[in-house]
Amino acid sequence: MKSIAVFCGSSDGVSTIYREHAIALGKALAEQEISLVYGGASVGLMGTVADAVLHAGGHVIGVLPHFLQNREIAHHSLSELIIVDSMHERKSKMAEIADGFIALPGGPGTMEEYFEIFTWAQLGLHEKPCGLLNINHYYDPLISLFDRMAEEQFMQEKYRAMVLTDTTPQGILRQFTNYTPPAVKTYITSKRT
């Protein structure tokens, strides 16, 4: 794995534990010589994880729509900052250059990014692992919702197994190393006459 995209909040959250784990993830990526691909901001958990990778001697690629350069305060110390025209182009570019995806805690934007990339995996548009770094039990309700989706048969079990979760950066990165994507989703079950 050469690069991992991290989706996360442009704020720090209420507890210092979120920043601590963002720093730990950044250090782990740098130690394993995995480039960070992220949203390009200098604020919140986004800036924290980027700074941690950089301080540990790692490589960071930011992808930021031009209209957010001032709102999210573009990070100007990155290895590379790619400016794009739209949020759609941002996600597409991140998906193109990343070999896997991790969601740290964040708000609706983080969820939207994670769900889109996860859905693309279900549809076979990529075969890259998607993980939730479940810091401070932040993602417990979402993990329960995925369980409910599978129980109610709105999600096949093989896709439920794609929801990789761990409470530590090392744990989620180990799962990424051992990840095998399931077969592509299809609705064809038998030939109709």
UniProtKB/TrEMBL annotation:
Listed name of the protein? Cytokinin riboside 5'-monophosphate phosphoribohydrolase
Example GO CC term: the record gives: cytosol
Q: Which family does the UniProt entry place this protein in?
A: Belongs to the LOG family.
Keywords in alphabetical order, please: Cytokinin biosynthesis, Hydrolase
The record's annotation in Pfam families points to: Lysine_decarbox
Task: Give an example GO biological process.
Answer: cytokinin biosynthetic process
Q: What EC number(s) does the entry state?
A: 3.2.2.n1
Q: Which GO terms describe its molecular function?
A: hydrolase activity, hydrolyzing N-glycosyl compounds
Species, as recorded: Paenibacillus terrae (strain HPL-003)
Q: Which EC class heads this enzyme's classification?
A: hydrolase
**Which domain of life does the UniProt lineage start with?**
Bacteria
